[in-house]
Amino acid sequence: MKRVRIGNGCGFWGDNLDAPVELAAAGNLDYLTLEYLAELTMSILAVQKAKDPAAGFATDFIDVLSRLAPVLKAQPQLKIVTNAGGMNPHACARQAKQVLAAAGLADKRVAVVSGDDLLPRLDALFGAGHPLNHLDSGAPLTQIRDVVVSANAYLGARPIVEALKLGADVVVTGRVADASLTVGPAAFEFGWEFGTSALDRLAAATVAGHLIECGAQVTGGLWIGADDATRLGSVGYPIAELSADGAFTLSKPAGTGGAVNLETVSEQLLYEVADPARYFTPDVVADFTTVALAQQAPDVVRVTGGTANGLTDTYKVSVAYRDGFMSAGTLVIAGPGAAAKARRSGAILLEKLKRSGLTYAETRVEALGAGDCVPGVVGATGDPPEVVLRVAVRDPRRAAVERFTKEFAPLVTSGFPGTTGYTTGRPPVREVFAYWPALVAKSAVTPSVEVV
């Protein structure tokens, strides 16, 4: 029986740079997926592209691809599918092609999936009756049109399949749904169509994609049972081995650290899931309540089920818009009553600014180490010997936020005893990019696939 091994070596932009190379070398993979994009990442990439038309993609991928060259030579059947293209998949693909050529792999075909970038078409979409209303508030996007910096539809697996049909060895996409990076290779290898006849199999592959999309988070990372025996320092990244009916095993390379068990898989299955019976993707609405897990062997979990619960006629759209400025500074407060002194120090800082005529749209004072990180969930059991005071503000006025950054150092001599930790200087001021989720009809978006 044909089986397809898909491993994910990257769960976000900033993930471990060695993981993709180690997974590809030891995983006996058919496909290596690399997932780089989050909503915040897209807004950062949009700003980068606005400053430099050749930028706007996850540059870590180029470094990783260079290091993967020996593996690609040793394993010529290995294909790569990645959303590293971000806001500029064509530029990313061109650099990938150059890297491969420099490594003696000029014969590798690189394909680009695009069409997700709706920003140049926003006004036309509004005019055609697509208001891109906020999914929670229902407000139309037109009310913040002037400050929108990116708007991307989450494409599905279908254009990835088209790229593979063109003979691509490396598929570079813009914004696609995370799970679709796995669904695409599976659908291509097994010849699944995207009609109603294959929805259950697409749903099962969506479960696989969801489980491996965050990399080591399903192989022991953040596992509630993790301890020194878990060997997270050498944690292995996940491999989904799928069969034609959609059932699969989840594992990691032999000898690596981490763990694959019913707890690690269950935890990841529920990650970022609002309604387990309706996990929306561009490919299918998957029902996670039908998933069954079984420990097949040490660090091998068999996953069955994962059925379809319909199909939508819309794509989710991730919009980022400028929403003022923010800054957050910290100081260490040590000694008796540290938490109370920290909270009072934060209040004093804001009181001084108020006397100077400055109040802010949002403020937050936290005594980290005293239960403020997850208030009401994990509380302090006693008087901690030291805490980190963190004060943050957000406001439309950059000058007001800059003034805030200058109020930390004075507390070192005018605050409570035990105040220290000021040697990092004034905190930076950052522009805030807020998130606007919306839907757009699939008929209004045309994915594009080409080989570069």
UniProtKB/TrEMBL annotation:
Entry superkingdom: Bacteria
Annotated Acyclic terpene utilisation N-terminal domain residues: 4-450
Protein name: Acyclic terpene utilization AtuA family protein
Alphabetical list of Pfam families matching this protein: AtuA
InterPro entries the UniProt entry points to: AtuA_N
